[in-house]
Every structure is written in structure tokens, then in C-alpha cells.
Amino acid sequence: xxxxxxxxxxxxxxxxxxxxxxxxxxxxxxxxxxxxxxxxxxxxxxxxxxxxxxxxxxxxxxxxxxxxxxxxxxxxxxxxxxxxxxxxxxxxxxxxxxxxxxxxxxxxxxxxxxxxxxxxxxxxxxxxxxxxxxxxxxxxxxxxxxxxxxxxxxxxxxxxxx
Length: 162
Description:
Blueprint: E1 7-12, H1 16-32, E2 35-42, H2 44-52, H3 58-85, E3 91-96, H4 99-109, E4 114-118, H5 126-131, H6 133-140, E5 144-148, H7 151-160
Parallel strand pairs: 1-2, 1-4, 2-3, 4-5
Helix pairs in contact: 1-7, 2-3, 4-6
């Protein structure tokens, strides 16, 4: 019988919670000898909404998108270092678009068994719940989802791996 979790995708969004999720995913993949994928998705849909609502003008949108692209590269490099440091060879994927849609597409195209995300932010209203991309992804992807919550335990597990 093959490994029940052969391919793991971790969603990075630049938050501390997503870094903890990355450490957990690395530890899990090393333990299970699973393939690890990491993604950062530049939410261009949200940028377009800011232009439509006249919060940004188009030139500001392009500048902000460039900054987000640079952040994506930085976080993916950091993720790769976290994984390689523990003997795991990840595949890094940078995408642009609507986060929950892109995650769903990646899960299908890479035949992902498990999506790992950081702890969800506290929902203060129904509107927050509707617009939280991690929440939407969690509900829409066609695979199991692991939400990493215990930062201290996760860091201890990650640090203890040689």
C-alpha cells in the first residue's frame, strides 16, 4: 500500500501563521517521505477591486502588485530554505489570481492529498468570513485540509528534526 499522504501543498501568505504551517508541512513530509509543494498566490482580484472602488489608481495598483510579487519571491525562498534545511526538496509555485480558485486548481493539477494552512484569523463578521481566502479555500478544495494551530509545539517538532 502506498503512503496515504503522498503530496502536500502548503499555502503561504506572508503571515507568521503560514510560516508555522510551512514548518509543520516540512516536518510531516520528512516523516512520511511525501512530496512537498509550497505556494504564494498574489491576490490580483483584490487589487482589481481596490482600483474599481477608487482606493488605488492604476499606477498604484501596478506598483503594489510589483511589491507583492517581490514578497512572494522572498517568502518562497524562505520556505525553500526551511524545507532544504530539514532534508526536504520542495517545489515552489508562485501564482496570481483569486486565492481560493488557484488553490483548488493546484490541488487538482498536482493531485494533492493534503492542503496545509496556518491558523485562520478570527472572524469578526459574516463579511470577514466571506472574504477570508484561506477559509474559502478550506471549504472548496477537493482534498483534506490541515490547519496548524500550536505554534510552540510545531516549532519544537521542526527544530528537533536533524
